[in-house]
């Protein structure tokens, strides 16, 4: 492992261990998620100027008016997605962003299908994920509202942007028994929702308040 991946100083393993201790205290119980987040170099997913803040519990800018979610939110959404099974087959990710959430998912599920609407972000994320030798990821440059019907249905869907309401096409691409974790609401009034598809209809749980960038249509 190269020094840049391994981390030094404020990006060292010791700093990551402090992050994991904090996540445990915040109520993240899935040991596998905690281990993977400890071992995944979050600092490589952001500009060098911000790398020393990578393990703080805060969202940070990644360019193009986008952010990398705070570690707690990444851990919480992943834990909600995995549910009691602890493992999923195919997962659709809406919003590759810098690729950090993608990296965590790829180490926990069989395959990640990740959609990004901002092409330069997607290309940068692919480079980082390739550096980590994570190869069970497929990428699509597209409007996240459309999902990825070619590979549906998905066992899990995770969205990293807040929609005003759950996009219908994403609901339709969720397998029976599958789980979607998505922030819903407008700026200042967003909450995480967990959607479980039943044989007839959907079970929707309203969870904690969050702050995400808006879920936008189209491509850039």
What can you see in these coordinates?
This protein is an alpha/beta fold. Helix 2 runs antiparallel to helix 3.
Shape, per Cα inertia axes: globular
CATH second-level architecture of the domain at 59-210: 3-Layer(aba) Sandwich
Please tally the helical runs, counting DSSP H or I stretches of 4 or more residues: 7
CATH structural fold name of the domain at 59-210: Rossmann fold
Strand content: 25-35%
Distance between the termini: 34 Å
Helix fraction, binned, reads 25-40%
**Total E-strand runs:** 9
Task: List the main descriptive attributes of the protein structure presented here.
single chain, 220 residues, alpha/beta, Rossmann fold, 7-stranded mixed β-sheet, two-stranded antiparallel ribbon
What topology emerges from the helices and strands here?
Elements: H1 3-6, H2 13-25, H3 31-39, E1 60-63, E2 66-68, H4 71-82, E3 88-94, H5 100-106, E4 109-116, H6 119-131, E5 137-141, E6 154-159, H7 168-172, E7 174-184, E8 190-197, E9 202-210
Parallel strand pairs: 3-4, 3-6, 4-5, 6-7
Antiparallel strand pairs: 1-2, 7-8, 8-9
